[in-house]
Structure formats: structure tokens, C-alpha cells
Amino acid sequence: MKAATVKELKTELSEYSQKDLVDICLRLSKFKKENKELLTYLIYESQDESGYVESVKREIDIEFEQVNRKSYYFMKKSIRKILRAAKKYIRYSQNKETEVEILLYFCQCMKTFNPSIKKNRVLSNIYSRQIEYIRKAINKLHEDLQYDYGLELEEICK
Description:
The chain contains eight helices and no strands. The chain is mainly α. Helix 6 (96-111) runs parallel beside helix 8.
């Protein structure tokens, strides 16, 4: 079965009644956890973006506390998992400010992580790639926000 394009889906869904759309959304939420998480964000959390960012930061904190520090191999796997989750939450929001805030916080947590990420090349590369990604995202923001987030980024990079 070939999936329809977004445009085709949009035109088809515009013909459905509200009840049918609710049924489709509920059915869609039963298939994948990500679909349910996205619907939860859209329905409950999209109105309070700052609260959403804070909840993501708390989750990142919890995950960093649970990282297995026995070897760099386990640390790499755990940090990649945290980064995947953070990127998923950024995708849900689609807000550039949210993206910058979450990635800045992730990098801040990585920098203060013990043992130091500087002792491992892969972890250092993950950190530096995210810093570059943040720089690119900052350039897409309003000038005032660029300045504020630029200061935060420079503080983290010190």
C-alpha cells in the first residue's frame, strides 16, 4: 500500500465531519506511542510553550541522572538516547525558540556531566555538533533573541 501525500490527505480530511476526525485521531493514537505523544502536545501543552520547555528540561535532568557511568560506551548510548528524545520533543513543537532552549540545556548538561565528555572523542563530537546546530538555529530567530541566545551559547562554550 502506497501512502498518500500530505496534500491529498489534507483535501480528503477537509471533507470529513468533526466526529469522523475525532475518530480518526483516536484510532491514529492507538498505533504508535509517538502519535499519542504528539496529540498530547497539540491538545494539552501547545498553549503553554514555556511550561512544555520546562517539562522537557526536567525529563532531560532525570535522564542525565540515570546515565550509566561505568564506561564511556554506556555513556555514549545513554546520551544519544537523551538527544534523540530531545529532538523528538523539538519536532513536536516546531518552534525555533523551543529548539534553541532545549538544545542549549542539553549542551549545558553535557558540559557539566561527570566524568568529563572531553575525555571521549565521540561525546565531544556530539557536543560540538549540537553547538553548531544551535548556532544555525539562532540565526533563524529575531535579532533580539539572537543576541540573548548568543550570549547563553557563548557562556556554555567557555
